[in-house]
Amino acid sequence: MFQLIPYEKFRDTPSVRFFDITIANSNARDLVFHDGAATSPNNGSEGCWQFYMHAHQEDNLLALSGGRTFYLVNLSWKQPFHMVRLQANGDILRIPPGTFHRSVSDPDGSLVLNQAVRAAGANLETEFRVYNSAEIPLLLKATSQSAPPPRRHGFEQFQLRVA
């Protein structure tokens, strides 16, 4: 299952805060900038949602600015579909390997740091494939209008934006 990981503030000075955001065993860093209300990955040509899924990589995502909504689907979870809200200065979202995921940024965009943990043999070609839900019946079923609604996390004070 995914996790929301708090991190520790270790020092305050006038107008400056310092945080320890270290993810143990992280061996890769990705910085992902969304300009405006970007969706990643984009929808397929027929309008179906597309997802990333890393077989050999754990993502650890921290919003540095703006906000982003993540759509997570893992067919092995008791409830497979979740929506998680990340806001700057909030928790780190840990997405385990084997989880389909996509994200939508707020209208003003967002900047997210990923402190990934990549297994030996992982490479960008295989780990960053795009999966079209139209081609994966169980994924399409889990995210369809007739499926149970996703479980929402972190939306208490934010307005919902749909992909």
TrEMBL record:
UniProt xrefs under CDD domains: cupin_RmlC-like
Highest taxon in the source lineage: Bacteria
Classification via SUPFAM superfamilies: RmlC-like cupins
Name by which UniProt lists this protein: Redox protein
